[in-house]
Structure formats: structure tokens, C-alpha cells
């Protein structure tokens, strides 16, 4: 349920099944039919778990008669299962205290060695301990939602899943939700069917807090995305990116021409561009709330949220704003978070330092210029690449600022909440870590 950079191609549509358009249609032994039957049987198996859950189902796609909102009503709290789900015998539940240095290190190591990789197994997300503490301890968080699985015999942490509380607005409705993330099972235990039990367990614990909806992302297609976004990448250190196989030298391009192509100015160009400070929280909150109100799905941030999620924290989250030199009004804002990837099997380099575009608001400074300044400060801070999804208004600057489309798609999901039609990425105002 974390994000993933894996491509997910969709099968081509079949022509109408009349014999002229498709001469093989009537022949049951045709390869196409066999393949389709195989795919059908696979997809039924694949979503056996999700078909039992209150999520949008593929068969409902396009049915505009279904009401928007919760799919199932809340259960009386007394009827929520009081004891944890059963794990396979060799394993036991543990609650991970992220304040504890030892536990935090265990979680860090589990993710570092077993979390999301790209399709070619060249890169794996490497969330820092500081980042994990930040991501998992927003105001009002529940420690009981940081769920681990240990091997009883060795006490080794072998799986992990988390939720944090959030208020997410869907159209005019602000809904209390859990944001589910960091679902990770040790590579050697992937066949043990632990993931569905973990998802049911985190759901149970969320229900115990009287919260009935959730948001999550995945690199795979499950029933049913509310939207599908594309990752875009902007080279900051093109030589390193090419050396480690993250990107390739373009046709008829030399290394020196490529380096020149991606070169950026030494410092930001916008007058009044500076790092965000604690005193800026009220102004940034106003700016952000006003901006996010235009999207169909977006977080409902208050000042506490802005302080937690957007106040700069070294190697975790960076935020900059534009303060008008004349009026001292705060007019624009940009931010990115730090998520390095381990580079697997390269002699020279072990880490790719990546910045991920977070929330950006432009009212006076053109978004293109604001984001170019964000690229400049990221380059100053030694990031190798700047990544962005095509959500919100990001589409407007991606090509112009020399971002290239990645092969990764990110699918957004809501649990127990139906949206009548799927959204365009530009209608989504939510970034999950």
C-alpha cells in the first residue's frame, strides 16, 4: 500500500464480438479466448480479498445510480471485534512504539530491506528514521495503529502496516479517515498470506476509534482506483542518474550536452523567496486551505496540520515561500519531502537522493517560476532527482521544466467511500507519503 514505481499496462479492448471484426471470436479454442479465460480466472483470484471489502468494485464502474459517500454505515462500537485477528501460529502482533530508538531502527531496517522496489529491482525506497517518525506521529496519532508482526521464536520484526488519522474533504463533506501506509512483509514470508490479515487488523483498530473510512495508494491496480497518477522525474544530477541506470542518455545526446540541458541557476530568482518559519504557519494555512478548496478530494488542513506536515525538518520536508518585499504578504508556497532510494548492486553509488513535490500554491509568482526555484534549492541541497505526480496543477509545469514521465503509476483508493466517477489527476489535491 505504499507507492510503487511499477508500470501497469492495461489490456487492449477487444473489438466487438461479431465474426467480421473478430474472426476468432466464435472459436473457443482460439488463443485469445484461452488467454482471456486465463486472465479472468487470475483476476478473480487476485482480488478475492478486496471483493469482500467495502470498496468500489470493478463491476460498478460507470454506474451513476450509486450514491456517493460511505458504502457501509458505521457499526456500533460494541459490535467491533475486540480481540486481534489470528495470525499463523509462528507469528504474533506487536505495537511499534516509534518513540523508541530500538523499535524505530527495527522498522527502518525492515522497510530498507523489504519495501517497494522498481520492476527491474535496481532501486528500493529507503525512508529515514526521522522521516518515519514524522510520517507516523502527526497530532492526534494512535500508537495502536503502528502494527508489527514478530516471529514468536526469534522476536524478529517481519511485517509492518500503519495508519495515521486525517481529515479529508470529498467535495463538500469533511470525513475523518485513516491514511494507511508502509504495508511491508519480509521477502521470505510473501507466500504466507499475511497482508490480508494485517489489512483487516489495521481496519479493526481504526474502527475502534470510530473511524470508518481510509485513503491509501498502491502501484498495483486493486478494486477500484479513484484516480491514477503518473510519476514525472526531473534530473538534477544527470550523470549520476545515467551511471546508476535510473535514466538513459537520450538519442544523439552526449553526457556533456545532457548536463548542460539540465543545468539550473545557482540561486532562486524570485524576490522574497525564503524558507518557511514557525511564524508563517497561520499565513501558509490560509493560503493552502484556499488553494485546496478547488479540488474534489483534498486534506482539510488546520494550523496544527500545517505546522506538523510543512514546517521544514532537515532531510525530511523542505518548505519555501514568497514574502512580498513591499507588503510582506505571503503570496506563494512550495514544498518537497525527502525520500532516498537504495541503489542495488552498484559499486560506486549506494543512495539516490530524491525530492518529492508535496504541496505548492501560487497566487502571485507564476507556478512555473516557483517550481523552478524549488528545483534550484533542491539542486543546491545535493538532490539527484526531483519527482512529481501529475496531481493538482502540476501538469502545467512538468514538460516546461524538463520533467520526463516515469514508468510508474500511482493509484489512489478510498476505503468504504464511493466516488461516483473516477477523477482526473488534476482534480486530486492529496499527496500521500
Notable traits:
433 residues, alpha+beta, Aminopeptidase, 14-stranded mixed beta sheet, 3-stranded antiparallel beta sheet, 10 helices, globular, disordered N terminus
Describe this structure in words.
- The chain is an alpha+beta fold.
- It has two domains: 151 residues, Aminopeptidase, CATH 3.40.630; 200 residues, Aminopeptidase (3-Layer(aba) Sandwich).
- It contains ten helices and 17 strands.
- The strands form two sheets. Strands 1, 3, 4, 5, 6, 7, 8, 9, 10, 11, 14, 15, 16 and 17 form a 14-stranded mixed beta sheet that branches. A three-stranded antiparallel beta sheet has the order 2-12-13, covered by helices on one side.
- The N terminus is likely disordered.
Amino acid at each position: 500500500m505504499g507507492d510503487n514505481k511499477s508500470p501497469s499496462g492495461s489490456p487492449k479492448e477487444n473489438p466487438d464480438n461479431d465474426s467480421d471484426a473478430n474472426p476468432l471470436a466464435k472459436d473457443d479454442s482460439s488463443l485469445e479466448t484461452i488467454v482471456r479465460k486465463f486472465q479472468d480466472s487470475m483476476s478473480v483470484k487476485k482480488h478475492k480479498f478486496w471483493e469482500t471489502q467495502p470498496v468500489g468494485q470493478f463491476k460498478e464502474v460507470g454506474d451513476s445510480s450509486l450514491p456517493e459517500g460511505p458504502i457501509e454505515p458505521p457499526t456500533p462500537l460494541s459490535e467491533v471485534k475486540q480481540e486481534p485477528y489470528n495470525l499463523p501460529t509462528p507469528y504474533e502482533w506487536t505495537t511499534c512504539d516509534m518513540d523508541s530508538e530500538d523499535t524505530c531502527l527495527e522498522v527502518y531496517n525492515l522497510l530498507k530491506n523489504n519495501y517497494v522496489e522498481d520492476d527491474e529491482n535496481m532501486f528500493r525506497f529507503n525512508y529515514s528514521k526521522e522521516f518515519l517518525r514524522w510520517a507516523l506521529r502527526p497530532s492526534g496519532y494512535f500508537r495502536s495503529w503502528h502494527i508489527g508482526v514478530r516471529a514468536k521464536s526469534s522476536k524478529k520484526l517481519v511485517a509492518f502496516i500503519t495508519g495515521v488519522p486525517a481529515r479529508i474533504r470529498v467535495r463538500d463533506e469533511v470525513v475523518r479517515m485513516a491514511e494507511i501506509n508502509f504495508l511491508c512483509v519480509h521477502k521470505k514470508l510473501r507466500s504466507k498470506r499475511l497482508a490480508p490479515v494485517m489489512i483487516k487488523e489495521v481496519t479493526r483498530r481504526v474502527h475502534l476509534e470510530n473511524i470508518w473510512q481510509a485513503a491509501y495508494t498502491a502501484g498495483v491496480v486493486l478494486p477500484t482506483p479513484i484516480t491514477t497518477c503518473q510519476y514525472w522525474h526531473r534530473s538534477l544530477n544527470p550523470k549520476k542518474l545515467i551511471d546508476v541506470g535510473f535514466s538513459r542518455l537520450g538519442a544523439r545526446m552526449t553526457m556533456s550536452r545532457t548536463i548542460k540541458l539540465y543545468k539550473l541557476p545557482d540561486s532562486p530568482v524570485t524576490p522574497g523567496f525564503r524558507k518557511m518559519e514557525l511564524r508563517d504557519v497561520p499565513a501558509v494555512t490560509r493560503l493552502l486551505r484556499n488553494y485546496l478548496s478547488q479540488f474534489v478530494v483534498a486534506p482539510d488542513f488546520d494550523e496544527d496540520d500545517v505546522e506538523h506536515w510543512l514546517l521544514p525538518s532537515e532531510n525530511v520536508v523542505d518548505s519555501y515561500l514568497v514574502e512580498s518585499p513591499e507588503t510582506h504578504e505571503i503570496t506563494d508556497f512550495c514544498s518537497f519531502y525527502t525520500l532516498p532510494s537504495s541503489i542495488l548492486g552498484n559499486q560506486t553509488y549506494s543512495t539516490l537522493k530524491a525530492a518529492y513535490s508535496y504541496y505548492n500554491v501560487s497566487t502571485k509568482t507564476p507556478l512555473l517560476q516557483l517550481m523552478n526555484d524549488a528545483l534550484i534549492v533542491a539542486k543546491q541541497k545535493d538532490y539527484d532527482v526531483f519527482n512529481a505526480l501529475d496531481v493538482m496543477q502540476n501538469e502545467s509545469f512538468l514538460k516546461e521544466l524538463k520533467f520526463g514521465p516515469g514508468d510508474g503509476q500511482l493509484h489512489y483508493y478510498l476505503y468504504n467511500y464511493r466516488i461516483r466517477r473516477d477523477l482526473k489527476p488534476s482534480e486530486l489535491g492529496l499527496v500521500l507519503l
